[in-house]
Amino acid sequence: MPETKITRLEKKVEKKVIPQEASIDPATQQMIARAQELKIETVFDRALKMKPCNIGAQGTCCKNCSMGPCRLPLPKSGIDEEDDRKGLCGATPNTIAARNFIRMVAGGAAAHSDHGRGVAEIFLSAAKKETDVYKIKDPGKLLSIAPWFNVETTIEKEGEQVDRDIDEIAVEVGEKALNEWGKSNGELLYLKRAPATLYEKWGANGVRPRNIDREIVEIMHRTHIGVDQDYKNLIKQGTRAAIADGWGGSMMATDLQDVLFGTPYPLESEANLGVMKADHVNIVIHGHEPILSEVIVAVAQSKEMEAYAKSKGAKGIQLSGICCTANEVLQRHGVPLCGTFLQQELAIVTGACDAMVVDIQCIFQNVANVAKCFHTKLITTHPIAKMEQENVIHIEFDEHYALDDAKRIVKIAVDNFCNRGVDVMIPHQKGSQVAGFGVEAIKYHLGGTFRGSYYTLNDNIINGRIRGVAGVVGCNNARTRHNEGHIAIVKELLKNDVLVLTTGCNGIACAMEGLLMPGTASAHCGPGLAEVCETVGIPPVLHMGSCVDNSRILLAATEMVKAGGLGKDISDLPVAGSAPEWMSEKAISIGQYFVASGVYTVFGVTFPTTGAPVFQKYLFEEFENLYGGKWDFEIDPIQHARKMIAHIDKKRQALGINKIRERKMMDMATRRDLETA
Ligand code: NFS
Q: What's this model's pTM, rounded to 2 decimal places?
């Protein structure tokens, strides 16, 4: 291999972050130090150099017209009863914070839902056989979702009901699904998948989404200067758009991806920068949509490309992923995770990344600058996500030529292998993991075969072995120590017998830490949860996929309601939600649909309404009266977990199962008593 010199960034790093303070992960610490040694700036240094704006962080900066920005921070002396802060138009802090908050919901719902729309378009084109790259991989899942779209799966022939042609079903499902983004009448079809009580609650509160696009557009209209000025009315629209995300765009993205690419079932893999291999061509896929990466996986694993890589002196091709594209190809193919959101620059700093292929969302613009310092080819693939730097290659993905596009990309990476410099340093750390727990897989592992439901899970909650269930999800945030909150909160929950469902970057963080291995149950869980995990052979943290797969958590909760014994609605369940290190607008949309589905949801790091105490109180307290769920905010990880546990205990008490902690299975009679209690 020829020696290449590292092109250092022009401005050298002035303020340096201390690696151990920036992350709890040794591989990340090593790579931050390595970047500093090479004078390459990363997000960790930038976070040190630039402080966040205090007014924006409080949610009370309005820049929706050019008379502003109007800045309404909390006065240092505190606010008196007559809080007379006002923008030029008279907007109060509550109006401004509510507007900003629901604009975040709009951004997040748009991102998830536009992803879902892209999948639906490919799905329809596959169903119509316009492309032979994509095919229906899981007809069983297609049949299970068809009724929700009012699509018949059988047809009458000569007086008998016979199975309908699967291709016909697929086309009709594809058309009905795509219609959900812009139909002119009715409401979203998937809303009826929610427990009946919740569906009724949404109706009573006037928040059943009409179509996905409309709810997002209406947020932009209502937050324009001089339109909606009542924080309660504003957040009502935010709720409607968030439901359109969770129970609409995201849920359809998940389902249609499962039908096209396969429903996940548990598989083994690894996680962290240590999955990269010095003697292999390393391709890192990064972003969110699995549409192209599915084909890249197939091409990179083909004999043809393997042989091509060997002809260039490599031992093979090592694929790995960052962010949610990674979670998508992990849960269906076992492709290892390279790292979380905050490790994207560091994957390139290893000097061993021959190509980074990105699609949409959560991609730092600075990866292009870091790539410039190495031989790494940075390839953008999506028409809506390009980069301005001249070293970036754009290969626009076209589903009709998906195979050719993927081959071209993999070939670029292989050809680039020989251009590596001497500056290769791959940390050795990597965690083992078992991922791929969809709703169906959990049903299989924790369900009762005779009921085909979440019976065993509920039973173990009722008898107290499992105290409750927590969904811990979401991003990393450079304003807090990388992965510290994620891991501390999950461990505290496990210690207290709370089963954890995870997605997104929390899933990656847990995988890096080894918490997704069944064997960790005895080390980290309370005795009850450990016993269940060991008996069933599951990890105490179940990785349910990417961020659109938070819809799987909604459906898992719905299955718990259906299985009986734990109330009639999601809000009755001993469950809680958390995003310890959130940063994206998508997280706000997710939080809002969790809350509106009845889940108590706690966020860490910062909360964008702290400058508007009245509006915040509405979200943190009064919301519970409307939907059964509410928001909370807690920076300290242990307190954060304890608040979730306290909520779980409150729900156990309401269900009358707080006292039962004995170690015996309940008989059916006791169970029936509980159900009718
Ligand atoms: Ni979710 Fe996935 Fe990670 Fe956050 Fe970004 S990757 S969609 S937004 S940072 S979890």
A: 0.94
